[in-house]
Amino acid sequence: MHLPVITRNIRRGIKCGRCHAFGFQAIGGSIGKCSRCGQVDAIQLVVKDYFTNLNLLYPADTYKRRDIMEHLKLSISEYTLQKIIQSNFKKLDQRQRVYFFSP
Question: Is residue 92 part of a domain?
Fold first, then answer.
């Protein structure tokens, strides 16, 4: 039996793995830190975990670069965004910048 998912209750952004606060901030290009408890994690891993869980709710969703940034709510460089996209997403079409999650 499928349960209805109310999308207005889903909050975008990266949560801390330890204290579950939404205060995760990028420090440099490869690591991030929770502003509440100080937990340090690799940005690549938390992004992969985030989109893995999101993929369970919306398995056929496609994302543009802007959508990925809106989901993450992190201040990251273009280089870091490129690394995230290359390692976790695949292009839907060769001409467009539309991606689907495929780690």
Answer: yes
User: Can you give the pTM of this predicted structure?
Assistant: 0.83
Q: How far apart are CA 89 and CA 47, in angstroms?
A: 11
- Determine phi and psi for 66, rounding to 5 degrees: -65, -40
Q: How confident is the model at residue 68 (pLDDT cuts 50, 70, 90)?
A: very high
CB atoms within 10 A of CB 84: 20
Token digits of residue 66: 């802007």
Q: Provide the residue range defining the domain that includes 54.
A: 13-101
In a domain, 8, yes or no: no
- Sort strands 62-64 and 40-42 into parallel, antiparallel or unpaired: unpaired
Q: Looking at this protein, which amino acid is placed at residue 101?
A: F
Task: Find out whether 62 and 53 touch, Cβ atoms under 8 Å.
Answer: no
